[in-house]
Design brief:
The chain has 378 residues and is of the alpha/beta class. It contains eleven helices and 13 strands.
């Protein structure tokens, strides 16, 4: 090896792809980079033990020191859990729409009356008028509609008794907003809107109209739940999502994952008396009912369109309901009492029951009381 060859070998090396690398030039560039960093972030390089980032490069300057973040995984506080009366938020609109941020799906074939019923429930709830024979307080309602135009909306509201003099301050109705609740930007806009108006109950007509993705795509519905569903639950905003059925099937159109999103699912069909029947096909909460349960609603158009519930016959209640109701009467539990009070009274008397039976007994007593001046009787 000659002297010149030795100098070349000391100065140059081969890169991973066989290219020549000038070691002196690379060293000079590294020194310049470090010196530049010391000028731009003084004190950052004085004590190597306190460096928070690697040696800076011209492509990626050091960022701010890392900070600790709180862990999002929080265990349930059991004393608070048991002391909380969860029964107070059970229903948004009894006996169809569970409360407490739960998601309800109502599907039907076209022309069965689901949109009219949905509008009636939302409109009545916003006014605080009795809904389905249940007393109510004014509720701030949001309604997102991709189905009706203004002329159709006016026609239906007038049929329900609304007019220019009606106070609709609590009724936030949106016609044909951008689709894409399965996309981050549109979902964020909706959540901002809900927060701005302090919406308590949300109606979506319809779920297939709300997404921009393929109707049968499971990914679109999963994104919808992640972006909207979880945030509704966090805020305690209960919601009703309408859906259409296919021509040759009795379940709602859309991907199979869609049904997993909902806590409660009803199939609506038109009844013989111009009313509607709702059949329960899914209930995550036992107090809502069991699969196959039905709710019959009668419709009247005199003087205005309204719906009322048809009370179930005695033999349609879950086994044990009547005995439980009699025990609650014997223990003088107030008819208006919720499930926690009823459960506590029954347990103290040594005759505790399952929660679904207690809930059914409470409903039975209230139905009976509303139809008898002397209170519930058997």
């Amino acid at each position: 090896m000659t002297e010149d060859e030795g100098v070349w070998e000391a100065r140059f090396a081969s890169g991973p792809n066989g290219e020549e690398i000038d070691i002196e030039e690379e060293t000079r560039l590294l020194v310049e980079t470090v010196e530049a960093g010391m000028k731009e972030w003084p004190g950052r390089f004085e004590d190597p033990d306190e460096w928070t980032d690697p040696v800076p490069s011209r492509a990626q300057p050091p960022g701010p020191p890392r900070t600790e973040r709180s862990n999002p995984f929080k265990r349930v506080d059991w004393p608070t859990f048991w002391a909380t009366d969860h029964d107070t938020t059970q229903w948004a609109i009894e006996p169809i729409v569970p409360g407490g941020g739960r998601m309800t799906h109502v599907h039907a074939k076209r022309g069965q009356g689901k949109s009219e019923l949905s509008l009636y429930l939302a409109y009545s709830a916003s006014l605080g008028e009795p809904v389905l024979d249940q007393e109510a307080v004014p509720t701030i309602v949001g309604y997102i509609d991709w189905e009706m135009g203004e002329a159709d909306l006016r026609d239906r509201l007038e049929a329900m008794g609304a007019g220019p003099e009606t106070d609709l301050e609590n009724f936030h109705y949106v016609l044909f907003p951008p689709r894409g609740l399965d996309k981050a930007e549109t979902a964020h806009s909706l959540i901002e809107w809900l927060d701005e108006h302090e919406i308590e109950l949300l109606f979506i007509d319809s779920i297939t109209g709300s997404i921009s993705g393929e109707e049968n795509s499971n990914d679109a519905y999963q994104d919808l739940y992640d972006l909207i569903g979880t945030r509704l639950k966090e805020r305690g905003i209960s919601s009703v999502w309408l859906g259409n059925e296919g021509k040759s099937r009795d379940d709602s159109r859309g991907g199979s994952r869609k049904e997993d999103l909902f806590d409660t699912i009803w199939r609506l069909t038109r009844g013989d008396d111009d009313g509607v029947q709702l059949k329960l096909t899914k209930a995550r909460q036992s107090w809502v009912g069991t699969e196959g349960d039905t709710r019959h609603l009668t419709r009247t158009g005199n003087p205005y369109v309204s719906y009322k519930t048809v009370p179930p016959s005695t033999d349609s209640w879950p086994l044990g309901t009547m005995d439980c109701a009699k025990d609650l009467d014997r223990l003088a539990v107030d008819v208006s009492a919720g499930r926690p009070i009823a459960v506590a009274a029954l347990r103290a008397d040594g005759c505790g029951r399952r929660n679904d039976i207690v809930s059914a007994a409470i409903k039975y007593r209230r139905w009976s009381a509303s139809r008898s001046k002397s209170g519930p009787g058997f």
